[in-house]
Design the sequence.
């Protein structure tokens, strides 16, 4: 009991099973990377849809914009922990299980993609309208404008947006870990908190902070590389 | 080449209708530089944006090379647009692309091979004098260089028409002249039809063959630049022309004339306006010889050529001191020489 209480208990690193910690860290990274890739794709598509359907006069397009917008807003406002529970059945069907890193992916995607979609829309809005007009005047099609103007010209914002999203995803994986998704969150919760082993909690925390810092660093580097303004 | 028939564009806004362009009829001939001048909000941009379908007319027709383009859409419209280059006040370059890549942009919309695109873009970069900056990004260029990229990009698909919407308005006077020179060059070399919008008469004088003056969405005056500069009809046109060729606009001369009028209430301040060959006549020395009792001092003179180089406009501010009689006679003499004279009085 002495081991598990008091400030000193956080530093009894002999209690930490380092191979376990490493495995958990890789699980967290795996969940984050897979979710980020899927979120980037869906977020980009949703954001594009929001951008392209904005201020149109056609009632059909207006309705589409309203539906996408509502979908994005609703999923953005559901707390993550509730979203997981809400999507249990869906996850079971899609992944075939409700535990493990794989099972965390659907809820991670559902909560982060709408968030990123908004960031994408904002990034596109910030592209100089004059440049889009110049491309139109040159005879570019809508698709050509999207992949030759909109995306390249908003790339720094798209990348910093996905960096922010990735970092909040790391937080979500920890929450998902607490209810059985694996990774550092689960390690900190079950092996640390529930087993009165504070050193493990601290080690898991430090590991998460390091992962966040690495993602941030990669994101910042990438933005710097593409930003020629 | 370009024909506008009863062209009208009305915007619906929250504050009601805005008649940006109303009932404009214009013809632009092949190979000419057509200038459109007017103050902010006159409808110049709206008018030229209808030339390449960036704006759809509310009514009227836009005919280019015999084809109506205002009712085209989709692929047909895009094909027409490729043959109309456009340059903008704020250059509208892609910051994410180098000079060469920016020039290649319009070429990527056609079916040239990568090799052909690069060759052509390089050639164009050299044409506009940026052969040594091809791999620079726009953020590394000066305003004048950016506009050169804009011009090269506009020329990439060998357009028949080049539209310039305030292309020099963001540039300093020296750079403006360099860009105008480049446009003049291009007009000659490529036999391009150029439609140029501006609020500076200077640009018109340097470059245009024909000019249309716009106010409140209407074309209030049009004609050859030589004609409009020497005989402006509408008040607005006169204001534009005067701002360009009349130095009284400057504060300096206004101050000096005021001073002189106070110091020499008997003297006479006269503005002489010369057109064409008169510029080269020895008017002043003849006056001095004919009226030895008069004292003639020159305050300021200016001489301007308009784009066709055949028309020269000069103005000269002089002060005459001496017997009233002689002054009267001198003015008569000047009128006999068909020099326009305007006596300047104190403004107060
Ligand atoms: N999309 C639009 N919606 C509503 N009103 C517009 C729109 N575009 C232009 N206008 C209005 O039409 C009028 C003419 O505008 P336009 O931009 O053609 O003027 P301009 O002569 O080019 O002026 P500037 O020299 O400032 O560029 C203005 O009163 C402007 O407010
Ligand atoms: Mg304008």
Sequence:
């Amino acid at each position: 009991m002495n081991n598990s209480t008091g400030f000193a208990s956080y530093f009894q690193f002999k209690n930490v099973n380092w191979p376990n910690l490493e495995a958990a860290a890789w699980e967290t990274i795996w969940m984050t990377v897979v979710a980020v890739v899927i979120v980037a794709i869906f977020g980009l598509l949703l954001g594009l849809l929001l951008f392209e359907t904005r201020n149109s006069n056609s009632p059909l397009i207006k309705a589409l914009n309203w539906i996408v917008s509502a979908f994005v807003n609703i999923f953005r406002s559901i707390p993550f922990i509730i979203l997981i529970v809400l999507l249990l059945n869906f996850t079971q069907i899609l992944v075939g299980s409700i535990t493990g890193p794989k099972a965390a992916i659907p809820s991670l995607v559902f909560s982060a993609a709408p968030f990123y979609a908004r960031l994408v829309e904002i990034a596109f809005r910030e592209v100089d309208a004059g440049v889009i007009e110049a491309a139109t005047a040159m005879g570019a099609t809508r698709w050509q404008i999207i992949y030759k103007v909109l995306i390249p010209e908003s790339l720094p914002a798209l990348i910093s947006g996905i960096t922010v999203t990735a970092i909040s995803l790391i937080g979500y994986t920890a929450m998902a870990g607490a209810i059985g998704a694996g990774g550092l969150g689960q390690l900190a919760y079950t092996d640390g908190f529930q087993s009165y082993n504070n050193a493990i909690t601290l080690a898991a925390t430090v590991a998460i902070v390091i992962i966040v810092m690495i993602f941030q660093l990669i994101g910042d580097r990438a933005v710097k590389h593409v930003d020629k303004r | 080449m370009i024909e506008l028939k009863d062209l009208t564009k009305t915007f619906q806004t929250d504050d009601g209708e805005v008649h940006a362009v109303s009932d404009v009829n214009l013809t632009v001939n092949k190979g000419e530089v057509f200038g459109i001048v007017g103050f902010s909000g006159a409808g110049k941009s709206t008018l030229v944006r209808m030339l390449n379908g960036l704006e759809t007319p509310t009514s009227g027709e836009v005919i280019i090379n015999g084809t109506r383009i205002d009712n085209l859409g989709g692929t047909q419209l895009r094909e027409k647009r490729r043959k109309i280059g456009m340059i903008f006040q704020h250059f509208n370059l892609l910051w994410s692309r180098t000079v060469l890549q920016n020039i290649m942009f319009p070429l990527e919309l056609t079916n040239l091979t990568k090799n052909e695109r690069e060759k052509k873009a390089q050639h164009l970069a050299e044409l506009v004098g940026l052969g040594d900056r091809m791999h620079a990004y726009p953020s590394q260029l000066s305003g004048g260089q950016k506009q050169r990229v804009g011009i090269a990009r506009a020329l990439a698909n060998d357009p028949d028409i080049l539209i310039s919407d305030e292309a020099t308005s963001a540039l300093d006077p020296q750079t403006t002249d360099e860009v105008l020179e480049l446009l003049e060059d291009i007009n000659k070399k490529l036999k391009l039809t150029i439609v140029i919008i501006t609020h500076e008469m200077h640009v018109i004088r340097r470059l245009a063959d024909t000019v249309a003056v716009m106010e409140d969405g209407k074309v209030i005056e049009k004609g050859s630049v030589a004609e409009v500069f020497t005989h402006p009809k509408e008040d607005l046109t006169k204001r534009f022309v005067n701002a360009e060729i009349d130095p009284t606009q400057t504060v300096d001369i206004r101050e000096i004339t005021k001073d002189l009028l106070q110091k020499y209430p008997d003297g006479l301040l006269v503005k002489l306006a010369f057109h064409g060959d008169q510029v080269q006549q020895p008017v002043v020395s003849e006056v001095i010889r004919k009226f030895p009792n008069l004292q003639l001092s020159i305050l300021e003179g200016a001489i301007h050529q308009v784009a066709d180089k055949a028309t020269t406009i000069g103005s000269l501010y002089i002060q005459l001191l001496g017997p009233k009689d002689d002054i009267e006679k001198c003015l008569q003499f000047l009128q006999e020489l068909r020099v326009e004279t305007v006596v300047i009085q104190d403004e107060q």
